Each structure stands twice: as structure tokens, then as C-alpha cells.
Amino acid sequence: MISGISKTLLLLTALLPNAVWCATSAELITRLAKPAPATVEFSELRYSPMLKQPLRVQGTLRYLGPQQLEREVMAPHRELTRIDAHAVRIEREGAKPRTVALQRVPELRVLLNSFTALLTGDAAALERDFTIASAEANGGWRITLQPRDGRLQRRVPELRIEGREAQLRCFTLLDARGGANLMLIGEAIQAAPQTTERAQLEEYCRGT
Amino acid sequence: MSRPRSQLLLAAWLLILAGLAFFVSQQLRLGADLRLFLPEARTPEQRLLLEEIGEGPASRIAIVALTGAPAQRLAEISSSVASALKRSPEFRWVANGEAALDDLPERLWPYRFLLTDTFDHRALDGQFLRTELDQRLQDLSSPAASFIEPVLARDPTLEALKLLERWQPAQEPARQFDVWFTRAGDAALLLVETRAPAFDPQAQAIALNELRAAFDHARGRDAAKLEISGPGAFSVLMQNRTAAEGQRFGVFATIGMILLVLLAYRRVNAVILSALPLASAALAGLFAVSAIFGTVHGITLAFGFTLIGVAQDYPIHLLSHHHAGDSPVASARALWSTLATGVASTCIAYLAFLFSGVPGLAQLATFTIAGLLVAGLTTRFLLPLLVAPNPRDVVTLPWVQRLHAVFERLHLPRGWVAVAVGLLAAALWFAPGPLWQDNLSALTPVPPALLARDQALRRELGTADVRYCLAVTDTDTQGVLRALEALDESLGRLRAEGAIGAFDHAARYLPSEDTQRARQQRLPPASDLQAALTRALTDTPFVPDAFAPFLEDVQQARAAEPLTPEALKGTPLASRLDSLLLQRGEHSIALVTLARVRDPQALLAVAQRAGSSVRLLDLKQATESLVAQQRTYILRSLGVAAVLLIAVVAIALRSANRVLRVLAPMALTTAAIIAILHACGVPLSLFHLISLVLAAGLGLDYALFFEHAADDPVAQRRTLHALMVCSVSTLMVFALLALSSIPVLRAIGVTVGLGVVSNFVLALVITRPQRASAVR
Fold first, then answer.
1. How far is A140 from chain B (nearest CA, A)?
2. Torsion angle of alpha carbons B529, B531, B535, B537, nearest 10°?
3. Per-residue pLDDT tens for B543-594?
4. Rounded to 5 degrees, what are φ and ψ at A188?
5. Coil, strand, or helix at residue B695?
6. Most buried of the four, A172, B147, B336, B756, by CB within 10 Å?
7. In chain A, what is the straight-line distance between the N-terminal and C-terminal CA atoms, in Å?
């Protein structure tokens, strides 16, 4: 099924001038596919112009199947977020659970869609929502996604997925205010330089 | 009249009718406001009901349920319908659960510190800010960050969000995807408040059509279904249903009439001739009403067409009495004194309605008087010119002769009459149940399944009670807002005790200027707030000057002029206030809507304790008292009408014995119908009364014609033929109506049907000269 979609995509993109690019992206995306459920550790850094230093949270990210994501924060506080196709439900220690419809937080919907597409290797789905670009050098690679929807693009100009060989390392979401969400994934948490410096971590993610 | 000339006259007549029809259709504006048929308000409750609130904001509210698609799709449709309706002038207020930040426009943001009660009991100090900021840090590292971050610098305490949440209905319905859903999750729910009151089905229909269009547009090609429930939607539904059923019966009745006339006279042109006076009467009536009153009420039309049904009999008398050897004109002249007595007495009796004090009844009287006059005059002066001479004399018809022979043998069984009268009197006296129908809606009852669904939906949304609300009156808006604030605490207590389920009022959205000023006093000055914020920001990762917009907003709130309803114009908040705050010339009225009222007494006690400016309105009671008052007016008019009628008949007949014989059938019939209906447990309504008037009119005509025939056997047979055709045709039409599923139509059908039978029989045995039986 998944390879079928990719093949169709390959055939289609072969007709386009940037066929080489897309073929590479599609290949990359297919390579990243993981069977559900998949669980990874993450360490997320939140950069914002309002913050002197970034906020860091650590926990587990569980991919439970298409459009179903669970994000459990273990430190510095405990929080459980469930994201499905429709809503985000945030449960925090000592607070009433809060549910927000996904349509009100389009960033999250994008994140979820892109995650699902990545983990299922569904290049076609990604291609529908994003302009995809990819680059590979010295075994390191990067897929850049830019939302096609204008409104969304103003809020989330770019998503970056970076890694080395078959390993996903970083997932970065840029926001329009100059802030960013940088998520180190799996082994990258230990491998990355032990700093919160955005430039250094970005450099690590780029793999250069 | 020669044939070509009579055809020319027919053509001219039809042309005039067509012209009149055109004029009327241009001129006619159909009104549907039921208030036209209600008398003037007397009590403050009635006045509020009639003049100020229509039927209360709760009755304007319709519940919209969207079903038949996946929940997420339903939520999307709900959103798009809500935003479409928010732009429509037909709707005052639309809510689907979405707390959109757009509901609080940018320019009103600083005012959130005057609208929120957060700082009434705790200071906006360093400690409070620190707790909030810690929360925001967690928010920032959660997936909700992107939702919160854009407003964070300006609103670190999320005061705007708290306000929007507070403005949601007191009892929060279930939600999915941010919009209201039933708990079962099978339907997305919206609340819409129409500008039109519930009792204006026409204006309601316009609003509902707009709602349907918005839904169709939002739905696209999905299979989603739309349900609209509420008093307004029901009034449209029932009006359509009544009209549809009425129309269907109209078609059957017309076919029946045509067949009957063909059967009775064996001539095609008899059909046209018998229809002409009635058509003329209807158009003349419409013309008169639209010329005098401008608009014609829908009910006037319905009642009017019922009442001029008498005119259908006029041409039948002419056709039956016309016979070979006598010109049609001579026949008409011979009948005229009787016909004229009937027309004149009925018309004069209707004059009483002109002065009844109820505008709708005045219209009705105008319509009927104009119609009957025209029907009578055309039957006398125009119709004879069209009737072909030398028809078959109905006297020779075998069935007429046989029937006449049978009736000849009939005599008045006085003993039986006494027994019947006794039984009826007993029925009237002993039968349980109310004599009168006070509940207007009982006449056009909504199917129980729909009502049950409405109840269920209302429970899901916790919408306001249709029966009770509180009205607060004062000289100005600030006065009522202060009164509402004073009332708020006791209402909160009632809710805690369970006496009421929820309440809503204008001060929940817009506090009085006094309260806003008091809140301004409590807000810290710039330097204090800056210090508190600095303290709160110590050891946090926040940039020290990140919250400059917040500081600015607080200072702006401190210095601002308090927010007034005028300043809110054009905002979503204003439309909410519009239905809760009314400005009526000299005074302001605020309504407190209530949900799930369990203890009206406790509510009354709170209202009484609050002073004379607060009043508990029982809209059901107010409506019923109005209906009762309306009935008093009508009964009084009927009394006057009866006196006038007797006077006219007495003048015409000039003999006490004749007058008695002519009036007895209709008087007895009226009493009999009332007794029978009461014995069957049917409470009498306005519709029964109007039908009784028609039955009485028919009875008068039957009696007059039987009386006129005197003891001439040939004339008696012709009269018998005419009255058989009249009564059978009328009975057929109204028996059809009596089969209707709609109580209004059934009321009219049963009443008139009973009236026709009773009047005919009584006229036969009482009025017809009893020579034959006397000889026997």
C-alpha cells in the first residue's frame, strides 16, 4: 500500500522538472516509515522572543497509529497530551484537563499530519499539504516542509526534519515570531551537545 | 334577457371580478401578527408580553441540531452556519459553543479588566501574577503554546479567555471539536435567536429559510441533516400544515360542490352561476378590508371565508325556485324579501364586531358585511339576468315529492324535544372539564414527537424557560444594570438551592458603570503594577519587558470611561445585550432569562424582596388571561349581535309568533352545539365561536325560507329542494373539515356540521307551518 503510493508518486513526479528532488524526498520519506505503534524519547526546546532562555521538557512521544499521537512530558513537570484527528487533550498535574479543537490550533494539525505522513511513509499526503524540499550531504539529510495553506504559512513558515542515514534526529517547527520548537529525538538526545543554545543545536541537527 | 346579452353580462361580470382580483392582489398585504386578534393589554404582564417582549426572548430562540455526518464534519458545518448567521439581520444572536477571540474586538481588550470579576476578591499583585506566569510557562512548553503565545504579552493572566468562557451559557453543554454537541455525540447543536417573534410565522419563515440556505451551503454534498426546533419553527410548521390540509379539503369540497350542483340542476352553467355570488363576495370582502385597513390578517381571511359560506346558499335558492312560466327576474323578486331579511339581519348583527375593541374582529366584520351584501345584491339583480329561462321545475322531481311527503308526515315530537333539551342542559351543567379553551397553542398542537425532541434538545443546552422570566424596570440602563447586579447574588443562591437551573442577564456581560468604576479603583497604578510584575518575573525565563502591552492595557483600563451599551454597538456582545436589555421610551427593561424553573414561589419571593422594579413574569398566565379577555370581548359582541339580529327579524316579520318560529331553530342549535361539545370534553375556542356564528347564520336562512314558503305545497317543495341542496353541500364541506387532523379545522368542521343538521331539522319541525300535522 505504502510503497504503492510512493511508486505512483514517483511516476507522477518523474514528469515534473524537479523530478530528481522529489524522487529524493519521496525516497527519504519512505525510508523513515515506521510501523505503529512506535515510541521515541524526545527532548524539546521552546525558543521564544519572550523568553530569555528556552524552556526544555523531556518525555516520550508515542505514535499509536494514523492521526494518533501521545506526548507525555516527564520533566520538569508531568503532562500528558493526546492528539487525534480532531482535538488535543492536555492533562496536567493538579489541573482540569483541557481540550482544544485541532481546527483552532492549525499548527498542531500540521504537525500531526506531517508526523503521520512521515511515519507511514506517505509522501503523497505530505506533498498535498506542503512544498517539499530535501537535501542530502555526507550521510546527513534534511527535509524541509513549507505549508501550502497561506494562513498556516504565516503562522508556521517552515518545518524541518533532519537526520542521519536511517535515523531521525531533529524535528523543528519555526514560528512566525522568530521562535522555534526544536525537538531532539531518540539517540540524538544524548548525542547532541549538552547546551540549550539554539545555533549550536541547529548546527548539530544539520549534521555538519 | 337574450342569450348574447346575457353572455355579454357574464363576460363583464367575470372581467370585473378579474379586475378586482388583480387590484386586491396588488393591494393585499397579509399580516400574521396574532396580536391583532388580542385585546388591549391591561396588566403590566400583558403589556410587557404584547408591547415589549413579544413572547419573551426565550420563545424567539430556536435550537438547531445537525446530524447525519461524522462529528468533525458536523462541527465544521456548525462553525460555518454560525458565522453566516452572525452576519444576517434576521438573527439577533447565534451561538454554537465556539469561544472565538473575535467575539471581543481588539478595541475592547483593555476593558477586560473592568468586565471581569477576577479582581473583585483578590488583588492584581505580584503573588497572583507569579502563579499565573508559572502556569503560562507550562502552557508554552505544551502543544497549546501556539494558541496562547500570540496573546501572552498582552494578557498573561488570560483574562480575555476567562471572560469568553464566562459568557458561555451557565450550564455548559457537551462539546466536541469546540462546538456544542449532544451528550450522545450524534448531533451538533446551535442556538439562534430570531429577530421575529414566534407568533409571526411569515417573518419566522424568512429567518428559517435563511438558516436552511446557510446550512445547505455549509453542507455541500454531505448527507448531513438539519433540524430546527422551537416555538417559531413550530408556528411555521403548523401554519404550513394547516394551510396544506385546508387546501386539500378545499379541493375535495369544490369537486363535491360541482358534482352536487350538477346533480341537482343537471345544467353545467348552474355550476358557474352558483359560484359567482360567492366569488364576488370574497373579492368584495378582500377589497373592503384592504381598502380600509391596509393589511389583511391571515386569520381574518380564514374566518372570513368561513363566514361568507352562507352566500353559497343564495344562488341555490334562486335556481331552485325558478321554474317554467316565471321569468328568473320574477323569481328573484319573489325571493327577495326573505333573502334580504337574511342578509340584512346578518350584516347588521356583524356591526357589533366592528366595535368590539379587537382590531382583527373589526376586519372580520368588514369582510363579512361587504361580502354578504355583494352576494345578496348580485343574486337579486345580476344573477337572474344570466339564468336561462324555462328550466325543469324541481317540483316535478320524484325525490323531492317523496321527501316532501315524508316531511309532511313529520310532526314536532314535543316530548322528545323536552327530553333532548333536558339532556343538553344536564350535559352543560354536569360535564367535567373546562368550558373554554385558554391555551392558544392547543389549537395548533405540535406533534408530540417534535415536542419531546425539543424538550430533549433544550435539556442538552440548558436553554431558558419559555414560561417564566424576570423583568427589571428602571428609568435608565444604568439603573437596571445596578438592579441586576443586586439581584445576581440571590439568583445565584436560588441556583445553588436548585430552585432554578440557570439564569442569564445583561449585567453578566456588561457591569454597571458603578461596578466598572469600583474595579478601576482596585487596579494598581502603573508603578505598583510594574513593581509587582518585576517581582513576579524574578527567576523566570521570561524576558523582563515581555509584558509591556499588558501594563499598558491595565493603565488604559484604569483611565477609560466605563463601557456603555452604546459603545458596544456593532460587536457580537451588543447583539447578546439587545435581547436582554430593552429601551422603551421613558424606561429601560432588563430581562432575566431562567432555565429549569423548579420553584416559581422561591423566585417570586426573590422578586418581591427586590422591590417593585423587579417583576416575575408568568408568560403562560399572561397569555391565558389575554385569551380570556379576548373571549369576553367577543361574547359581548355576540350578545349585541344577537339583540340586533332579533330586532331586524322582528321588524321584517312583524309577528311575535313568526319571529319566535324563525329564531327558535338557530337559538336551540347554538345551545345544542355548545352542550354537545362540552359533554364531549371539547373546550370552546375562538374558532368554535366563529363557527357558531356561521351556523346561526345558516339556521336563520333555513328558517326564513321555510317560513316564507308558508303552507303552499308547491313553494314548500321548491324550498325543500333549495334547502336540501344548501344543507347537503354545506354539510359535505364541513364534514370534510371535521375529518381533519388539525384541531382548528376540526373545530370549525364539527361545529358547523352539527349546526347544519340541527338547524335543518329544527327549521323543518319548528319553523315550517305545521298545517299538515295540525290537521292530522
1. 28
2. 70
3. 888 899 999 999 999 998 998 888 887 777 777 787 788 877 778 888 898 8
4. -60, -25
5. helix
6. B756
7. 35
SS3 (DSSP) at B712 = coil
Q: What Rg do the C-alpha atoms of chain B give, in angstroms?
A: 35
B509-535 b/e (C-beta count within 10 Å ≥ 16 → b) = bbbbbebbeebeeebbeeeebeebbee
Q: Looking at residue A13, what is its pLDDT?
A: 33
Tell me the pLDDT tens digit for each residue of B425-456.
887 777 777 777 776 666 556 777 888 888 88
Q: Would you call B546 an interface residue with chain A, using a CB distance cutoff of 8 Å?
A: yes
ipTM reported for the complex, 2 dp:
0.78
From the list B138, B149, B178, the residue facing A48 with the nearest CB is B149
Residue in the block written with cell 438539519? B226
Out of A51, A56, A181, name the one closest to residue B543 (CB): A51
The verdict on a CB contact (< 8 Å) between A49 and B543 is yes
Q: Are A147 and A110 in contact (CB under 8 A)?
A: yes
User: Smallest CA–CA separation between B191 and chain A, in Å?
Assistant: 20
Full-model pTM: 0.69
Q: What is the separation, in whole angstroms, between the first and last Cα of chain B? A: 46
CB pairs under 8 A between A and B: 86
* CA closest to A84 among chain B residues: B177
CB-neighbour burial class of residue B313 (10 A; exposed 0-12, middle 13-18, buried 19+): buried
* CA–CA separation, B142 and B150 (whole Å): 14
* B99 contacts chain A (CB < 8 A): no
What separation in angstroms does the CA of A14 have from each of A21, A26, A71, A145, A146? 10, 11, 37, 20, 21
Alpha-carbon B55 to chain mean position: 10
Measured in angstroms, the CA of B290 and the nearest CA of chain A are apart by 55
Q: What is the per-residue DSSP string for B305-374?
A: HHHGGGGGHHHHHHHHH--TTS-HHHHHHHHHHHHHHHHHHHHHHHHHHHTSS-HHHHHHHHHHHHHHHH
- Cβ of B176 within 8 Å of Cβ of A87? The answer is yes
**φ, ψ dihedrals at A59, nearest 5°:** 175, -155
Residue B205 to residues B59, B99, B453, B578: CA-CA distances in angstroms? 15, 29, 20, 22
**Cell of residue B237, nine digits:** 410548521
Q: What part of B 272-311 touches A (C-beta under 8 Å)?
A: none
